[in-house]
Amino acid sequence: MKMPAAFFLPFPVLFACATLAHAEIATIRVESRPVAVSRAAEATLEAVREATLAAQVPGRIVALNVDAGDRISKGDVLVRLDAAEANQLVSGAEAAIAQAEASLINAKAGYERTARLLERKFVSPSALDQAKAARDAAEAQLRAARAGRGASAAARAYSEIAAPLTGLVAARHVEQGDMAQPGRPLLTIYDPTAMRAVVDVPQQQLGAAGGRLPKARVELPESNRWFDASAVTVLPAADPRTHTVRVRVDLPPDAVGLVPGMFARVHFSGGENARVGVPASAIVKRGELTGVYVADGKGGFRLRQIRAGEELADGRVEVLAGLAGGEVVALDAVQAGIEARAAAVADTR
Q1: Which of 189, 147, 149, 155 is closest to 55 using CA atoms?
Q2: Most confident of the ranges 90-99, 176-185, 208-217, 273-282
Q3: pLDDT digit string, tens, across residues 122-168
Q4: Which CATH architecture has domain 84-157?
Q5: Topology of the domain covering 50-82+159-190
């Protein structure tokens, strides 16, 4: 039976189906075909947007509004520090501004008074210079006081730590009541909608690609999920110890349910190689023996041991040894085994 052309396009190995009239067991004729060769490398998932929040000023933690696993929105106040000292600094800065403004008013009045006296020749020009210097100093003092108030207000604003992105809290590193110090991690947050796999690839493997970015697919072994990479980025630096290059493989937006640190495999495609595969239903395992039932040309089947490889993209299993192209194997290994045993019993009678 001739299969439609659409059947052959998505599969790397060509299979033609037939039926043995005697045993009534469906079979396939296996042919090796060139398929894309992929190289697998172990990788780790990480978030594209991740942040570790820390305090910019020292202070005791008086409010810790989130815990690990909580969802957050950009701008949410996550941690609040004791702002009593910051409030005192702001009050002191405002008092310094009031004092500087009063000094400036007095210095301006003194300068104007000295200028009038100079016009009437009651003071020397040096007196006017001194009055001008006092006025300029008062203006500078007022600017400094205003800057001090701005710094104090900023320090008070640092007592509230807000979320820089929308996402999830990955880890909480402190408890309420702890003393926060500049640089000490408080929370780790990330955006779960943008994930990527990070893998270290030998530099000779990238060199074999001829300078082109390799195509990649990401496998999650624990859930048997596969994703086509939305982008592949090769970082422009190599590790001098391992001579590997770090590659970032971005996952598509529909890759949900993933968390940073998960194990993954990245399959880079490159080149072609002839490969033979059979459906998983054609393979039988008996203890340490792995085999398929091959048609003997007389209407029966014989068990033949094979060495199975990895699962191909179409769901078939690669056969590394024991089976050649053009041979016919039973699709239903269980039924073929029953027929083979029945035939063996009949021969002994």
Answers
A1: 155
A2: 176-185
A3: 888 899 899 999 999 999 999 998 888 887 777 777 888 999 999 99
A4: Orthogonal Bundle (1.10)
A5: OB fold (Dihydrolipoamide Acetyltransferase, E2P) (2.40.50)
How confident is the model at residue 13, as a pLDDT?
36
Single-letter residue type at 214: P
What's the token pair of residue 2? 């001739």
Helix H or strand E segment including 273:
strand 263-275
> Hey, what CATH class is 40-48+194-272 in?
mainly beta
Cβ atoms within 10 Å of 220's Cβ, excluding its own: 19
Q: Does the pLDDT of residue 239 top 70, yes or no?
A: yes
- 187 in Cβ contact with 76 (< 8 Å): no
- List C-alpha distances in Å: 103 to 79, 91, 140: 40, 19, 11
Alpha carbon separation from 285 to 74, 222, 291, 313, 332 (Å, rounded): 55, 23, 7, 22, 13
In single-letter form, the type of residue at position 166 comes to T
Q: How many CB atoms lie within 10 A of CB 242?
A: 10
Long-range contacts of residues 295-298, Cβ cutoff 8 Å, at least 24 apart: 295/20, 295/27, 295/327, 295/328, 295/329, 295/330
- Sheet of 317-321: strand order equals 277-278, 317-321, 307-311
Encode pLDDT of 242-269 as tens digits.
889 999 999 998 888 899 999 999 988 7
For the stretch 97-117, pLDDT in tens is 899 999 999 999 999 999 998
pLDDT at 14 over 60: no
3-state secondary structure of 184: coil
Please classify residue 135 by burial: count the beta carbons closer than 10 Å to its beta carbon, then call 0-12 exposed, 13-18 middle and 19+ buried. Answer: buried
Radius of gyration, alpha carbons of the chain = 38
β-pair type (179-180, 160-162): unpaired
Q: What is the CATH number of domain 5-32+276-348?
A: 2.40.420.20
Domain locations along the chain: 5-32+276-348, 40-48+194-272, 50-82+159-190, 84-157
